[in-house]
Amino acid sequence: MWMHNVAAAVMLMPVATGLLQRLPPPSEQSELVNKFSRAVVLTVVYAVPIGGMSTLTGTGVNLILVGMWKSLEPGAKPISFNTWFFYAFPVAFVFVICFWCILCLIYLRKGSGRALSSYLSKAHLKRELEALGPMSFAEKMVLSVFGLLIILWMTRRITDDIPGWGAFFNGLVGDGSVSVMVAVLLFIIPNRKQEGEKLMDWNECKKLPWNLILLLGAGFALADGVQASGLADVLSRAIDFLENAPYLAIVPAVTLISSIITEFITSNDATATLIIPLLYHIARTMHVHPLLLMIPGAMATEFAFLLPTSTPSNVVGFATGHIEIQDTLKVGLPLKLTGIAVLSLFMPSLGALVFGTNNGVQGMTNIPLLRS
To answer: Which residues form the signal peptide (predicted)?
Structure first.
């Protein structure tokens, strides 16, 4: 929820594979133990993108959506951190429960607990936890700064009626300002390991995915280009036939198309950059609020669940050697269909309530209320 998908997968996969090191080698594993091993790795692979949907900072796709919305409709109310969270967290919560059920039905058979009891138990895990020792000063400070960041994000603006601490700055401070301030703190607070060392230094900072920032900017430029070049008008005329299509039929189609495209473009961010401006103009043609298509279409680009190279988190899972393509196909297909169903149900209901898409949008032109 709070880290980029790839970083979260890279951080958590060693935890998962470390757990599996207590099991016998794959060639000596029983069927039940082998299925459990696959399930543990798949948990990290798929839970990462599902959790990333919850917050604006969880994945680059969400940031691209918010940036393009501001670019395409500068007069409309922007999507705040809390607004997104109120909608996306329930979606992700329901989705992750469905994922757990799918994983258990496919990989955890009756008797798995007895088969694993001699290798994994609470006593084993407790001993390993005690072996780590107490948290260091640096670990405590990073956790504290991380917690401070989350609190500031969540309380800058509570709701439209309940102002947060951001009201003291007359709207001059945004979520980005909080991120920069917390990042600066990491360069100031010492780690108490060596004299003069801080929690973060520039050598470590240079390893950050700066190409992601360039990709975000390119996406905003592409959205402006679609408008300025007249391509938006061409696309709108080409899809006039959608004007009378029922919205409840269009949303599943949009999420399905997005989730298929993302399987073949290895960057979810690139897929979102390509498809979000198109969805905006499709919505204009249909005379519905653009967010009703843009949000599920953007979130569906995270459903790259089938192929090994569809998204970097899949690559991290395959690199462990515990899963094969048949595993991602077996779990990914029902998971993709479940995600499409969840988005199709939540966007017209909870999404319309949170984003106010049934009440029109201040500053938007030619967008009437959602047709019944």
So the answer is: 1-18
